[in-house]
């Protein structure tokens, strides 16, 4: 308990002081250029168009934008920065890594680490979800590559999903394929998007859907040619921004608040649950086998 409190307060201190960014060459300040503003924390680049109030957040952590503790911390700091910026009304989330949106949680963060590390990691995953799913901004995922598990979750947190029309790109919550389990708030996010039956099928089978199937399943809202993903996201954004913010925000909150409250109420229990699950020998073995397979496929 004491260790958790220390981790929690040190994570918050890092978030508030910007010390985390300073480690990478100073706090991420806005750079101005004509009517564009931009900042980068290292793994994330944010470009904001002041004329439209739309920010584009590009994940740029090669080779696969896996979500490790550093990435997640940077992500939450960046999102917070946009959230409190009243001139920013919309966020397009996309990838700067070719062919990959995000490979999901970094499996190496869940293997062979201390329980304190697992707890800090899981708190950061929760934080990312709480901030993105609960964002007041219009959020659009421009899915320009594969997006398994945590990557799919990030996309599902957005208000609208546009994916590159390439059957080689797949999206889904594939946790069971790794021998692990999507937690209840991953499940809730998917149910809120595609419904109970489709979620049960997807989760039990750990199904990854190639883009055309993802569209049929309602996992994404629109497919466009690969080179049109960003422009289609911008076009959808201007439609979403034509709705008065206060009405749209209250409606979004009405739809999402029950799921958010559920995690907020049991955050510590969820962390403890994750730590005891992931530290089991049998689960560690499953993850090791999965990682070995990933490397062997080359
Ligand atoms: C009760 C409930 C309690 C809670 C219970 C617990 C809940 C946990 C919830 C978990 C959520 C998750 O997100 S779990 C994560 C699930 N993610 C995945 O399954 C993705 C696996 N990756 C892939 O499918 C592919 O890599 C893909 C992303 C499509 C890219 O394919 P490519 O051919 O382009 O690239 P690859 O050669 O495979 O990968 C490049 C390198 O990146 C590594 N890599 C790929 N994905 C990685 C990843 N997620 N984490 C770390 N490393 C990864 C590979 O090993 C390679 O390393 P080198 O060989 O060294 O170069």
From TrEMBL:
Enzyme Commission number(s) of this protein: 5.3.3.8
GO CC annotation: mitochondrial matrix
Annotated Pfam families: ECH_1
SUPFAM superfamilies tied to this protein: ClpP/crotonase
Subcellular localization(s) per the UniProt record: Mitochondrion matrix
rRNA-binding is among the record's keywords: no
Gene Ontology molecular function: any one: delta(3)-delta(2)-enoyl-CoA isomerase activity
PANTHER family, alphabetized: ENOYL-COA DELTA ISOMERASE 1, MITOCHONDRIAL, ENOYL-COA HYDRATASE-RELATED
Family designation: Belongs to the enoyl-CoA hydratase/isomerase family.
UniProt name for this protein: Enoyl-CoA delta isomerase 1, mitochondrial
């Amino acid at each position: 308990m004491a260790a958790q409190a220390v981790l929690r307060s040190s994570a918050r201190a890092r978030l508030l002081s910007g010390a985390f960014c300073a480690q990478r060459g100073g706090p991420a300040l806005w750079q101005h250029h004509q009517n564009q503003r931009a900042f980068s924390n290292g793994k994330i680049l944010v470009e904001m168009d002041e004329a439209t109030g739309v920010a584009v957040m590009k994940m740029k952590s090669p080779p696969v934008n896996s979500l490790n503790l550093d990435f997640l911390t940077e992500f939450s700091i960046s999102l917070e920065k946009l959230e409190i910026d009243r001139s920013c009304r919309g966020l397009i989330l996309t990838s700067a890594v070719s062919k990959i949106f995000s490979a999901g949680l970094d499996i190496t963060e869940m293997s062979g680490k201390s329980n304190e590390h697992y707890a800090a990691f899981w708190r950061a995953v929760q934080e990312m979800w709480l901030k993105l799913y609960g964002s007041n901004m219009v959020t659009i995922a421009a899915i320009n590559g594969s997006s398994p598990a945590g990557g799919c979750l990030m996309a599902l947190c957005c208000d609208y999903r546009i994916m590159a029309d390439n059957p080689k790109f797949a999206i889904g919550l594939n946790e069971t394929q790794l021998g692990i389990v999507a937690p209840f708030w991953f499940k809730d996010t998917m149910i809120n998007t595609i419904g109970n039956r489709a979620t049960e099928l997807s989760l039990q089978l750990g199904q990854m859907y190639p883009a055309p199937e993802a569209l049929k399943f309602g996992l994404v809202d629109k497919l466009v040619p690969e080179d049109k993903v960003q422009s289609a996201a911008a076009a959808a954004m201007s439609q979403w921004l034509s709705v008065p913010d206060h009405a749209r925000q209250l409606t979004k909150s009405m739809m999402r608040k029950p799921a958010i409250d559920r995690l907020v109420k049991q955050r510590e229990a969820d962390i403890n649950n994750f730590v005891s699950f992931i530290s089991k020998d049998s689960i560690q073995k499953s993850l090791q086998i999965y990682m070995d397979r990933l490397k062997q496929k080359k």
